[in-house]
Amino acid sequence: MNYKVHKQAAKPGPERLMSVLVAPHVTEKTAQNLQLRNQYTFRVRRDATRLEVRAAVELMFDVKVAGVQVVNEPGKSRRFGRTPGRTQDWKKAYVSLADGQSIDYEAAAGKA
Fold this sequence. Notes:
Elements: H1 14-20, E1 21-24, H2 28-37, E2 39-44, H3 50-61, E3 65-73, E4 77-80, E5 83-86, E6 90-97, H4 105-111
Antiparallel strand pairs: 1-2, 2-6, 3-6, 4-5
Helix pairs in contact: 1-3
């Protein structure tokens, strides 16, 4: 009998985790999520997984993550002069922190 054996994915190294988060994503909606749900939003690499995002946030900001939701955002149709085109697709991650945890971007920028 041929059974498929699933390999457990290797843990990503610190070099990979440091490149998972691209930038914080700040809008009115994300500011409201921060106040009401203690939920931060980040632009992440398009090939990043939930587990990588969780590990990257915990590594970079020294906080405890309660949950991660990722969303693939499609690019938009744009015109570049006469030529029709498209902006790039991207991925964002909503990161919920445990109670009492918060992220200080200025302190994290000074640490890096």
